[in-house]
Amino acid sequence: MQDKTLTCKDCGATFTFTVGEQEFYAEKGFTNEPARCPECRKAKKASQKSSNGGFSRR
Asked: Which Pfam families would you find in this protein's record (predicted)?
């Protein structure tokens, strides 16, 4: 295994998918490579958290 250079689908920046990250993904059973750079992944996660995942509280 070796580091891979991927392109973020949100911002278009290139980022490195390291061997360590690839091993982590394999351990977790993930079959797809990340589509977003770490910054966009963090932003997406934060926006999902603040929106309650689409559910409204009563």
From this structure: zf_Tbcl
The residue among 27, 47, 50 whose CA lies nearest residue 36 is 47
Nearest to 10 by CA among 38, 47, 36: 36
Q: What total of structural domains would you count in the chain?
A: 1
Residue 16 lies in a domain: yes
Q: What are the angstrom distances between the C-alpha of 5 and each of 14, 26, 41?
A: 6, 17, 16
Domain residues for 35? 4-48
Per-residue pLDDT of the chain (58 residues; tens, 9 = 90+): 899 999 999 999 999 999 999 999 999 999 999 999 999 999 999 988 776 655 666 6
